[in-house]
Design a protein that fits this description.
Blueprint (H helix, E strand, L loop, with lengths): L1 E6 L2 E3 L5 E9 L1 E12 L6 E6 L5 E3 L7 E6 L4 E6 L8 E11 L4 E5 L3 E5 L2
Parallel strand pairs: 2-11
Antiparallel strand pairs: 1-3, 3-8, 4-5, 4-9, 5-6, 7-8, 9-10, 9-11
């Protein structure tokens, strides 16, 4: 069994920063791409950023230059550094990972979500 556990959300003023973390645990053989998605009330879930195992990154246009995704393969952890936050960044942020388990089965896993609220 595999679990993704997120941390680091909260309330921040516009222009502020937050750092999200997501740690994967369980019967893991290898983690391929890891990413962060977000879902605001009344909107569809959207990709924020993702990162391959080798470190290639991809960002949504709305966060380029403000957010940075990184990962620590030894810790099975992905991070999202969010700077210059705007009210429109308010959403539930979900961690996602493409994981191959020790039973050599590949699947997409999701975290439980962490709330990020940007408000004065």
């Amino acid at each position: 069994q595999v679990q993704l556990v997120e941390s680091g959300g909260g309330l921040v003023q516009p222009g502020g920063s937050l750092r999200l973390s997501c740690a994967a645990s369980g019967s893991i053989f290898r983690i391929n791409t890891m990413g962060w998605y977000r879902q605001a009330p009344g909107k569809q879930r959207e990709l924020v950023a993702d990162i391959t195992r080798r470190g290639s990154t991809n960002y949504a246009d709305s966060v380029k230059g403000r957010f940075t995704i990184s990962r620590d393969n030894a810790k099975n952890t992905v991070y999202l550094q969010m700077n210059s936050l705007k009210p429109e960044d308010t959403a539930v942020y979900y961690c996602n990972a493409d994981i191959i388990t020790k039973a050599i089965m590949s699947a997409d896993y999701w975290g439980q979500g962490t709330q990020v609220t940007v408000s004065s």
